[in-house]
Amino acid sequence: MSAPSVRNAEIGRRIGVPLMYGLWKPRVLGAWKVPATGSLIFAVNHSHNIDGPMVMGVAPRPTHFLIKKEAFVGPLGLFLRGIGQLKVDREGTDRAAVTQALGVLGNGGVLGIFPEGTRGEGDFASLRAGLAYFAVRSGAPIVPVAVLGSSERQGRLTKGLPPLRSRVDVVFGDPFEAGDGTGRRTRKALDEATVRIQKQLAAHLEDARRLTGR
């Protein structure tokens, strides 16, 4: 299965820019830290459904997100495929999705991942091993991305959309390598990489909150 077209992802970005800036007031910080070329993984915290579209719209490079298969239904599914997004079955190892994601990175593209696996507190407290696998397997650096202001911190999940024209902060961090330099891909190596990643992401989120006052 071939990797999705970066041209399609660029179309998604061009749609996302006026949409996100039209509905809300994104404030983008640290975009200059994102490498202009080469394979890259955006690791994004996830507390609201708009987090993915927001990053897709404001990121300096077109992004292919791994998105749960439940979203790929009807017209929305056709649209997501049309803008280069990847369908993934979270119930098990989705080999087709893994192949496509590695294809994106192999072609020097940008892969977007919600390492928490699903919407939650958005604090990177619980990471799945998928992010470490893609980073170690591909050798692509990880750029932590904190989306703040997309949900009120009043409960575990917030229904509805953020108030129109409210400010949403998107903070890009410094790229870092997940592996230990040995190229090992054993379970132990991936577990160690996941611990390193979690520390980096948590530190970036803390910095982003301090920077934005959120």
Protein architecture, described:
This protein is an alpha/beta fold and 214 residues long. The protein has a single domain (6-212), classed as Glycerol-3-phosphate (1)-acyltransferase, CATH 3.40.1130. 38% of the residues lie in helices and 16% in strands. The chain has six helices and seven strands, in the order H-E-E-H-E-H-E-H-E-H-E-E-H. The protein has helices at 6-23, 51-58, 74-82, 95-106, 130-138, 187-212, and strands at 25-29, 40-44, 64-68, 86-88, 110-113, 142-148, 167-172. It has a seven-stranded mixed sheet, sandwiched between helices. Helix 3 links the parallel strand 3 and strand 4 (86-88). Helix 1 (6-23) crosses helix 2 and helix 5 packs across helix 6. The longest helix has 26 residues, at 187-212. It is globular, with a radius of gyration of 16 Å. The termini are far apart. Residues 153-158 have low confidence and may be disordered.
Task: Provide a short characterization of the protein structure.
The protein is α/β, with parallel strands linked by helices and 214 residues long. Helices cover 38% and strands 16% of the residues. The protein has a single domain (6-212), classed as Glycerol-3-phosphate (1)-acyltransferase (3-Layer(aba) Sandwich).
The portion of residues forming beta strands comes to 15-25%
Number of structurally distinct domains: 1
Mean pLDDT: 86
Count of helical segments?
6
Q: What is the name of the CATH topology?
A: Glycerol-3-phosphate (1)-acyltransferase
Number of strands: 7
Q: Find the structural class using helix and strand composition.
A: alpha/beta
Give the name of the CATH superfamily: Glycerol-3-phosphate (1)-acyltransferase
Main sheet strand line-up = 1-7-6-2-5-3-4
Shape: globular
Ends distance: 42 Å
Q: Which value, in Å, is the CA radius of gyration?
A: 16 Å
Residue runs with pLDDT of under 50 for 5 or more positions: 153-158
Using the 3D structure, state the CATH architecture: 3-Layer(aba) Sandwich
Helical content stands at 25-40%
Report the biggest beta sheet as strand number plus sense, adding barrel if it closes.
7 strands, mixed
Query: What is the string of helix and strand elements?
Result: HEEHEHEHEHEEH
CATH class, please?
Alpha Beta
